[in-house]
Amino acid sequence: MRFERAHNHTWRKIKSALAVGIAFGSALLVITPLGLVFFYLLINGAGSVNWDFFTKLPAPVGALGGGMANAIVGTLELLALAGVIGIPVGVLGGVYLAEYGSARLNSVLRFLADVLNGIPSITWGVVVYGLIVLRFKGCSAYAGGLALALIMIPLILRTTEEVILLVPNGYREAALALGVSRWKTIVHIVMKTASKGIITGILLALARVGGETAPLLFTAFGNRFWNHSLSQPIAALPLQVFTYAISPYDDWHRQAWAGALVLVTGVFCVNILVRILTRGRGASVV
Amino acid sequence: METPEQTVMERLEHGSAPPPDAEVPAAHTFEVKNVSIWYGEKLAIDNVTLDVAANAVTAIIGPSGCGKSTFLRALNRMHELTPKTRMEGTVLLNGEDLYSSTVDPAIVRRRVGMVFQKSNPFPTMTIGENVVIGLRLNGVRNQRFLNERLEKSLRMAALWDEVKDDLHKPGTSLSGGQQQRLCIARALAVEPEVILMDEPCSALDPIATAKIEELIYQLKARYTIVTVTHNMQQAGRVSDYTAFFYLGRLIEYGPTTKIFTNPGEKQTEDYITGRFG
To answer: What is the interface pTM, i.e. ipTM, of the complex?
Structure first.
C-alpha cells in the first residue's frame, strides 16, 4: 500500500510537471510569432523608415526614394470615414442589445453579429463593390470607408454590449429612482460608467480595420498620388504595402517592409493606449 | 438629547406610543388598496391594503421572500423595471393615483425617493456630483442653486461636516456608512415627499447603522419614511408603525409598540419572538 501510494505520488508529480510544461510551451508558441514578426520587420524595414517615408509621395518606377505620405494620410482618412459610420451604429446597437429588446430577439441579433464577425473581410469588399462601386461607377474613399465600417460595426457592437452588461444594475436603479428618464440614465450613468470599455472596443476595432487590405482592394483601390476628393480612389498603407510587396523591384520591397513596420507600430501603439486607458484609477467598473 | 433607543425603551416600558395612536386618524401619505403583484405567474403580493402615515417611519418586516421589497418598490413604481410584472389595485400618494395612465413613472420617482440595500454612489462622479446628479439630469442648470442644494442635502444626511472639504473626491472613496448617507443625500437633493429605504443598514457595521438610524429618526420630521428591514431590533428602534408580511400577504399592521409587545396574530408573534431569542 505504502509503496503504491509513493509510486502514485511520483507519477502524479511527473504528470503535473508535464502538463505545466506543455501549457508553458503553448504560451511561448503564441508569443513567438509576434516577436519574430516584429524583429523581422525591424531588420528589413527600419532602414527605410525615414523622414522621406512620412513626407513624400511614392517615387516612379526606377527612381529611388519616395515615401508613403499619401498612404498614411489615406489610411487615417479611411479610418475617420469608417469611424463616422461605424462607431455610432456599433455603439448604439450595443446599447440596444444590452438595455432594450426582448431576450429572444437579442439572442438572434447577438448570433448574427457573431456570424458577421466571422465573415472573411474580403467579402465586405465584394459587398461594397456591388452596392456602391458599381452603382457610382468608380472606386472611392467613401466605398473603402464603408467597407471598413461594416467590419467595425459587429466588433464594436459586441464589445459595447458586453461592457454595458457589466455595469451593476444598482446604478441604473439609483438613477431611475431619482426620477431620471431611462434614456438619460443610459447615456449619463450607464454609458459613462462603461465609457472606458466602450472606448477600448472602438480603439481595438480601429486597429483591426486599420490593417485590413482585402476589403480595400476593389473599394478604395489605392492611389499613387494625393487624394483630392473622397469620391476618388484613395491610397491606404496596407494596400500600398501589398502593391509594393508583389512588385519585382527591390526598392519597392524595402518600402513595403517600412510600410508594414509603420502599420504594426501603429497597431501596437493603439494597444498600448488601450492598456493605459483600462488600467487607470478605479473610478470606473469596466 | 433623545436618541432613538431611548424613545423606544421608554415606549416599551410605559406602553404608550407618543405620536402613533390608532384611534386618531393620522394624515396618510400613501393609501394602498387591494394591491396584488405578479412576477410572471408567481403571485408576489396578495391583495394588500394599507395606509402609510405621514411624517412617521413605517417599517416593513417579514422573512425573506415575503414580498417586502416588492411592496416597497410598488410605492414608487420601481417594481415595473422587472420584466413581466403585473399589478392590480391602486396606490394613492397624497390622494393622487400613482398608476393612472397619465402619470409618468419618472415623476413618481422624483416625488418618492429611494435608498437601496447596497450603497451605490455613481463611480464616475465626485461626492458633490453624486449629490446633485438627480437635479442636473432633471434639467437644473443654475450653479448657485445646485451648490445650495448640495450643502443642504449633505447637512440633512448628516454628512456635511465629514465631507465638506472633500467634495471633489470620488464618491466611492468614502466608507460604507458614509456612502449610504451620500446616497440618502442624493435622494434628498431632488426634494421628494417620501423616502423608501430597502434594508439600508444590512451591509453596515453597528456604528454606521446607528448613524443611519439616528438620521432616519431626524428625517421623519420632514419626510414620510418607509423602510424594509430584516432586523427586528432596528424596526423596534426606528419605526412608529410596523407591517408584518408573510408569503405576500399583510398579516398585521399597527403601531410598532403594539406589534412588538402585544401582537394580534400568532404568526407575527412567532416571527418576532423567534428573532428576538
So the answer is: 0.85
